[in-house]
Amino acid sequence: MNRSDRIRDAFRSVATTVINASWERIRLAGAINAEHPLARRYGSMGRGSYVAFPQGDCYNAHAIHIGEDCFIGAGSTLAVGMPTETYPADTPPVIEIGDRTTVGKDCWFVARHSIVLEADVTVAPNVYFTDHNHTYADPWLPVGKQVLQGFSVRVGAGTWIGTNVVVLPGTSIGRNCAIAAGAVVRGEIPDHSVVVGVPGRVVRRWIDGEGWVPPLTNEVVVVEGWPVGVRPTDE
Question: Coiled coil located at which positions (predicted)?
């Protein structure tokens, strides 16, 4: 290696270090937590919650309520209505994210009525939630200009939603469900269900007195020190 190559490599190494260190500082400085002045734009943000930088689009944030100890990944959009719409200051919660819920990066919440994620929900990256759709009954009017129909969406406590899932209007997912990557979900999903496919279908459920139906194919290994679930008193 000649002298010019060594100088070039040394410069590249220093530049890479400086750029990465600077980006890390920007990322930390740009994040929003409950103590940050920008947290006041939300209807509420609980203690210990964190919206990573860079944030995605956020419309009518006063109708968005985030619980305690939540994480919202970088690039995730929280949209109540359209950018051109202004919701009244006393609008009830439209997007609600429960305590200890984690939302991966680049997710979309597109809401006009109600999208609720209960406590301890885990959402992988690139998941899309919407509580409304355009109708298409008029064959001569562009679909994007036709009437919007809306139906509330709810995701039960403890549910895990895999990457690239689409959750459609009117969906109600029960407690402690597993929604496989790429599924398109609509309708009522019972508690303790495993959902796969397009359209999403239940392929396994926990049923009291029977256990998992059909049975699990792999035995669950209990790891020392790992938490063990306890049946809620309200079940």
Answer: none
